[in-house]
Design brief:
Length: about 950
């Protein structure tokens, strides 16, 4: 029977430890091997000064900077079982038959340095290196066969007769466990016995930790926890002993002055205090992807990283924001909260849930809580209010009174939104409920609430109602689509005396989406453009003066004043708080947003419950959230930003920066500007990766960047953590990046300076060549221009001469034409004169006839008509003779050239022959020629014949045409 009772006690204790869950669960993020592209199993985890994490992984050393994972393999491609980081940021690792360290080269890229060659070749078969311990500048590596001590470039090996089962550090000392010698301590280059308790022969140690004073806390794989006092082991009796015996402790570490983290092989992680009481527990049920935990790290933000047998997990145990799941079996939405008695009640879309809590805890999220559904509460719960020490539940079925785990209806059928006490003195005798169909009165008779019935006069659904502090018969209410109501009740509060509806005509931005609240002893309206209050003088709504212009233009859907006078608000599913205890600038307050809750609150049905600054409850689409606002303020830290990989983009991307700034062999915070990297122009496209090791805000952190020399201003804030620049011109550039978690909380700027070299055809040497070539080209051009100019001058001279010749010829031609015209003119005159001569001949003939007639008639009297006629004819003949003399002179002048040409061709021609030729060229008939020459026609014919003989003309040659041809010939 005694054994049975012990067994029952064992299993009941184990079940109780397993079944108990915390009210608030911090953020748990799991990473699987597909995300980090490494092996499934992870053995150890460490963090360096920059916040970068290092995991011992089955495929090598895994690093994580908040956004990007990188895997670095060992030379023999074995697993990394252990990791340690010294003060110089060297990452020491232990693998299989391999140990050494990773350290960045001049380009900031991690490179591995093996220390195996420091051992004699016959000692290099080490199997797995299971532990790395660092004290000062001394590094210890543990395999089961040897402990290796690395100092000042020398490795010393320590062996045991059996096996080395454990190695770790505590209080600046290195401890180890030998299978045959118990717990040992390293002292002056020797391993000395420290504890030889027999229990050490039956189980391996997994951790030695500081506990208090000279006492150490020792964890064992199969035996649980012990205190090491005066070199003696004493079992530490805790409520978790049976759990640890059952689930086995693989690793333990101190995570706070009074807290320890215990990793088990099958139960996840337990966080306990020095007394052994469970504080927190995280396993598969709480969100871990695997319960076999190999390593624990408390990072610089005091949050926890776990190396799992399958994957990696991040647990934000120090976060002030935690999630609450009233029902872990299904997704529910939370709308209302109330701490009542020793319990916390949460109204959800699926009823009311209750959990008993330890109200003595300042932060209720650390209280163990097992939720159960309150009876008779199925359906939608809209509100919870404690009035007169009784809990009222606003439900879709009406109003119910809640006591312990049971809800009792007060009235039904009318869905109820909320309650408003009409008295400022306890106990409140009257409560007004806003319902689906107007207002409902609830009265209190000193011991219980009584349904007072519906208040007649309004049938609108009123989800927001506020009692006017200055008028006990006045209620303000709002409808999101109609506007704001001022409701005046009759003295008995059984009906409505008067209702006034306010809208955009009364100072509100719009009649839509107005919500009434009681803030700072005032009735205020949350609107689409900030917060307004009613001005009784102007009977208009004006902006809430207390907030100044802080929320002007900001759409507000919810307001809640906490017990410290701070105002919590919701704007478009973003939660913020107006903190009057942290003035900023000219304002008596500061505004702080909680980006962790962005998009998680219930839109249109926002709910915030504020019992105190350490316990703020917020309704969410999935469960609820608990905020320790006091801790949240303390945890606000300036974000950091780390520059990750920098790659040059080309046919094959090349890494030119690995994420570490190195100066003279040491890791530094900023780039050494004395050695700026230079990249050839063919690789002028560059890729930057950046991140922040503020892991808790991973989803909310935003980045802004600028490439000085290319970008004129900083980029807009965004979540993207990489940037590409392509086809950069030659020049010097500085890439700047910064991170932010919200307003007025930015990181320092991290910079990376580089130079894009000019293309080969744009270098200084090529520019000098270009200058030389240009000078030579100019000289050649000048010489060519000179030659061309000379040739052009010669050509112009030649053309000028040709032009002169052409002009001279043209002048000669014009002169000849003029002469020819003169000749033609004179020939015409000559022809005219010739005709006159012919006419003279006719006159003479006529005279002859007249004389003959006179002779016949014997009429010789001077007065006779015949005689006078004869005299007149004679005068005409004399006149004609003068003209004949003139014609003779003119004839000779005109035909001088013709005569000269004939004389040259035919020297035998006489003057008479020449005259004869001239008459012939004038195409005179023989008769006309006979008259001119005063000879007979026969004599003319004879002259023709003689002339043809002298000219040696053939019979068929026309004499006239022959002479004309000679006359047309030009004098050479």
């Amino acid at each position: 029977m005694k054994k049975l009772l012990l067994a029952i006690l064992f299993f009941s204790t184990a079940y109780y430890a397993q079944a108990q869950v915390l009210l608030g669960i911090p953020q748990v993020v799991n990473y699987n091997n597909e995300q980090y592209n490494g092996g499934i199993q992870n053995w150890d985890v460490e963090q360096d000064k920059n916040g970068i994490l290092y995991f011992g992984n089955n495929e090598g050393l895994l690093t994580f900077n908040g956004r990007y994972w990188n895997l670095y393999r060992l030379p023999n491609f074995t697993s990394v079982r252990s990791v340690g980081i010294d003060s110089r940021n060297r990452i020491y690792v232990g693998g299989q038959d391999e140990f050494g360290y990773f350290y960045p080269n001049a380009q900031g890229i991690l490179k591995y340095t093996s220390l195996l060659n420091l051992l004699p070749e016959n000692m290099r078969k080490l199997a797995d290196i299971w532990g790395v311990s660092i004290v000062g500048d001394e590094v210890f590596f543990r395999s089961i066969h040897a402990i290796l001590h690395y100092k000042d470039g020398v490795v010393k090996s320590y062996k045991t007769n059996t096996t080395w089962m454990f190695m770790g550090t505590a209080k600046g000392k290195v401890f180890s466990q030998s299978a045959d010698s118990g717990l040992m301590i390293y002292d002056h280059e020797m391993w000395k016995p420290f504890c030889v308790d027999s229990v050490l022969n039956r189980s391996g140690i997994t951790a030695v930790l500081p506990y208090g004073g000279d006492t150490l806390l020792v964890s064992m794989l199969k035996k649980g926890l012990f205190l090491l006092v005066n070199h003696q082991l004493k079992p530490l009796k805790t409520s978790l002993n049976q759990v640890f015996l059952n689930e086995r402790i693989y690793f333990a570490t101190q995570i706070g002055p009074n807290l320890y983290g215990v990793a088990t092989t099958s139960g996840g992680v337990y966080i306990m205090n020095k007394q052994g009481n469970l504080v927190q527990k995280y396993n598969y049920k709480e969100g871990l992807q695997n319960n076999n935990v190999r390593g624990i790290l408390l990072d610089k933000d005091k949050n926890m990283w776990l190396a799992l047998d399958d994957g990696i997990a991040y647990v934000a145990i120090n976060s002030a924001v935690k999630s609450i799941s009233p029902d872990r079996n299904k997704q529910i939405t939370s709308y209302a909260f109330r701490k009542y008695g020793e319990s916390i009640y949460i109204g959800t879309s699926n009823g009311l849930y209750r959990a008993k809590i330890n109200t003595a805890m300042p932060d209720l999220s650390y209280s163990l809580a097992n939720f159960e559904e309150v009876k008779n509460s199925k359906g939608q719960v809209w509100g919870l209010d404690e009035i007169n020490n009784q809990l009222l539940m606003a439900h879709e079925d009406g109003t119910l009174l809640v006591k312990d785990n049971t809800a009792t209806p007060l009235y039904s059928l009318i869905g109820t939104w909320m309650y408003q006490s009409m008295d400022n003195v306890y106990p409140s005798k009257e409560v007004i409920a806003g319902t689906y169909a107007g207002l409902q009165e609830i009265t209190y008779d000193g011991s219980r609430f009584i349904n007072g019935g519906r208040i007649a006069g309004i049938n609108e659904t009123l989800r927001f109602i506020v009692a006017d502090s200055n008028n006990p018969d006045q209620i303000w209410a709002s409808h999101p689509y109609h506007g704001v109501y001022k409701i005046e009740l009759k003295p008995d509060h059984k009906s409505i005396l008067h209702t006034t509806l306010f809208s955009d005509r009364d100072g509100l931005p719009t009649k839509l989406y107005n919500y009434v609240f009681h803030i700072k002893n005032r009735v205020v309206i949350a609107t689409t453009s900030g917060v307004f209050e009613y001005n009784t003088s102007s009977k208009k709504f004006t902006r809430f003066k207390l907030l100044g212009s802080a929320l002007n233009g900001v759409p507000i859907q919810y307001l809640r004043e906490d017990n410290d006078g701070n105002i919590w608000f919701v704007t478009n599913k973003k939660v913020g708080v107006i903190d009057f205890h942290r003035p900023q600038g000219k304002n008596a307050f500061s505004i702080l947003y909680l980006p962790e809750l962005n998009g998680k609150v219930v839109g249109g049905f926002e709910s915030i419950y504020t019992p105190d600054s350490r316990n703020i409850f917020i309704g969410a689409n999935k469960g609820a959230y608990h905020i320790n606002y006091q801790k949240y303020i303390q945890n606000i830290t300036r974000p950091n930003v780390v520059l990750g990989t920098v790659k040059l983009l080309g046919n094959k991307d090349s890494v030119v920066f690995g994420g570490y700034f190195v100066n003279k062999g040491s890791i530094v915070a900023k780039q050494d500007l004395q050695e700026i990297p230079e990249y050839v122009y063919s690789l002028n496209s560059i890729h930057f990766e950046y991140a922040s090791t503020l892991f808790e805000h991973d989803k909310n952190i935003k980045f802004s960047y600028q490439l000085m020399g290319f970008d004129s201003e900083w980029s807009a804030w965004g979540t993207k953590s990489e940037k590409d620049y392509t086809n950069l011109p030659a020049g010097k550039y500085t890439f700047n990046v910064k991170a932010s978690t919200g307003i007025n909380n930015e990181s320092e700027v991290v910079s990376y300076t580089f130079v894009v070299l000019p293309a080969w055809y744009n270098t200084i040497w090529m520019r000098m060549v270009y200058v030389i070539l240009i000078v030579l080209a100019l000289r050649l051009i000048i010489r060519w221009q000179k030659k061309k100019h000379i040739k052009e001058q010669e050509r112009m001279s030649y053309l000028h001469q040709l032009e002169l010749d052409r002009n001279e010829k043209e002048i000669v031609r014009l002169q000849n034409e003029k002469l020819e015209a003169d000749v033609n003119y004179k020939n015409k005159e000559l022809s005219t004169m010739t005709m006159h001569l012919v006419q003279r001949g006719k006159v003479l003939a006529k005279i002859k006839e007249v004389i003959s007639a006179v002779i016949k008639n014997h009429d010789l009297n001077e007065s006779s008509p015949s005689f006078r006629h004869l005299i007149r004819l004679i005068k005409d003949v004399e006149k004609k003779d003068q003209e004949l003399d003139h014609m003779s002179v003119h004839f000779n002048h005109v035909n001088t050239e013709f005569f000269s040409r004939l004389k040259d061709l035919y020297p035998d021609l006489s003057q008479n022959d020449l005259k004869f030729c001239a008459y012939l060229s004038m195409n005179l008939s023989s008769k006309e020629m006979a008259q001119l020459m005063n000879v007979t026609i026969k004599a003319i014919e004879v002259g023709r014949y003689r002339l043809r003989k002298k000219l040696q003309l053939k019979p068929e040659t026309n004499l006239y045409e022959f002479l004309i041809e000679i006359a047309r010939q030009k004098t050479p």
